[in-house]
Design brief:
The protein contains three helices and no strands. It has helices spanning 2-31, 43-178, 181-198. The longest helix has 136 residues, at 43-178. The protein is rod-shaped, with a radius of gyration of 65 Å.
């Protein structure tokens, strides 16, 4: 269909060109002054020239028709092949575009998955850090409580020791002041007997 249209267009263009040449030639011959000086129209000369032009055009058409036809066929075949190549290239470009769109969709999904994984990993790490901190705080508290208890026990023991020393000093002072030497001897003997029984 396209080949026929292009051949028709070329034929019409050729016909228009040839008719234009004929009219221009005829106009030149019509308005040219004859040699004799009369202004009459030389119809015989015009007819001869028109016949010569028609023969020339016929010969040109006869000899140019086949090369022009083959040129037109080649041209139309080349155009058809170019259109087919363009459609194939367009189809390939569309496939590549679809593949790139699919890849971009996959990339956005992968990025979303990576973001989710990073968020979950960071949440897990934060939980591990919280757990570790809680454990460490509990260990430090326990250690502090144990250390406090030990310090308290030590302080209580020191206070008891100091209190017992003060009590013994006070008792000794009291005993010395209130007991006579005979009472003191008697107490010493009783205590020695108690110690001997225990041992």
């Amino acid at each position: 269909m396209n080949i026929r249209l292009s051949i028709r267009r070329y034929r019409r263009a050729l016909l228009v060109v040839l008719l234009s040449v004929v009219f221009l030639f005829a106009a030149k011959v019509t308005f040219a002054s004859p040699e004799g000086g009369s202004h009459g129209i030389p119809w015989r000369d015009i007819a001869k020239q028109a016949i010569n032009l028609a023969i020339l055009i016929g010969v040109l058409i006869y000899f140019i028709r086949k090369p022009l036809s083959s040129f037109m066929k080649e041209r139309s075949e080349l155009m058809r092949k170019s259109i087919e190549d363009a459609s194939v290239a367009r189809a390939e470009a569309m496939k590549k575009l679809e593949a790139m769109d699919a890849r971009m969709a996959r990339l956005s999904e992968e990025i979303a998955k990576l973001n989710e994984r990073a968020e979950s990993e960071s949440a897990a790490e934060a939980q591990v850090l919280r757990d570790t901190a809680t454990t460490e705080i509990g260990r430090i508290r326990a250690q502090a409580e144990l250390s406090g208890e030990q310090e308290l026990k030590k302080a209580v023991a020191e206070l008891r020791q100091e209190a017992s020393l003060l009590v013994s000093e006070a008792a000794e002072t009291l005993v010395k002041n209130s007991l006579s030497s005979q009472d003191q001897e008697r107490l010493v003997k009783e205590n020695i007997e108690k110690i001997e029984r225990i041992v």
